[in-house]
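Hello,

Following up on my earlier ticket. Below are the two sequence lines again, exactly as submitted.
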Amino acid sequence: MATLNIKRNVFAENDRIAEILREHFAKNKTFVINIIGSPGCGKTTLLEKTIEHFKGKYKIYTLVGDVQTEEDAVRLREAGGDAKQIITGGACHLDARMIEKEFEESIPKSLDMLIIENVGNLVCPSSYDLGEDHKVVIVSVPEGEEKPLKYPSIFIRADLFILSKVDYLALGGFDKEKILANGKKVNPKIRELCLSSRSGEGMDEWFEWIEESIRNKKNS
Amino acid sequence: MATLNIKRNVFAENDRIAEILREHFAKNKTFVINIIGSPGCGKTTLLEKTIEHFKGKYKIYTLVGDVQTEEDAVRLREAGGDAKQIITGGACHLDARMIEKEFEESIPKSLDMLIIENVGNLVCPSSYDLGEDHKVVIVSVPEGEEKPLKYPSIFIRADLFILSKVDYLALGGFDKEKILANGKKVNPKIRELCLSSRSGEGMDEWFEWIEESIRNKKNS
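Thanks for your patience. The regenerated structure is below:
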């Protein structure tokens, strides 16, 4: 019971900070997404391609959460992006306080877009509001069709579901329509997008979604 | 500070129960593994094949942890196994108390092997001792070579590292030797096994590891 109350307080405090962040981002007209998916679902590769695509056009900054290693931020900087690693130590998710700290210390104030790549984990990060405009959930083809049903919490909270690594569909044994239907079953309003960072398939739709979202934010 | 102390108490209490479970399993000569990996790394498919292989030879019981759905236990029962789903609700891991409850209520006492399939998550489950003989970590080829470095906690605690879905190596773009080397870098004593439940490659070595472990447990 004590543990439950502490948990409730943790979430309430997180939500309070997230709202402050959301106000800052709204004032600065910065479009913010919080990307959540399992280890190895293709988050960082997708962001590399995204950074390369928008280089010179939009000012994008990326925060990358990981339990250990600087590797992802290094990869994104090599792709030409401006990126900062948040090493959580033991923590299996990012929380609003970590983003607030970066807002004070590292995040540039005049940004078109802030991308937060959460820790590779389909469970815990879904509970933490980071002040984002949208949560984006990624599941890759090899992970299997039933993932939306088994991890409903993130699908309920996300506005966009990316089915990644669709180049693996060529190997067979995966029912694309079934996973998309499962996504809609958990969240009928979720937008769905199929892509492969490796083959390039579907990437244009992703880039258009970002452009449109940045435009809407500027006009909001 | 209060939160930290509560966390320490949670782990201490978990370890206390895990030790009691370990004594029970030792008395009953039941070999116990705790399988940990990301969502979609191939845990349940591997267990289906394992249950089919040992059907009639060994008495195996499986506990399957998931945040939601009974699907995995249903699949394992369809494969001819005796399986019970533990739905954790929000929790991103199994803990010793959940196993203790099943030990009292559902787990048969005369077992050759108890398989615990943890919640799909490479972070949190690594901290909870469930009274097992071995933690087994699974990473699938599509997840990428750097996983042992990014999720060291489970690699430090596991005795066996299974690289799964090696049939995906045919698509290229993955360095098998690199991920195996990364595994050894984090834990030089870890045993490594490459297999595909789909193609059957490497499965014999996995079955032999189980047979040997069951024999060792009987003679312990």
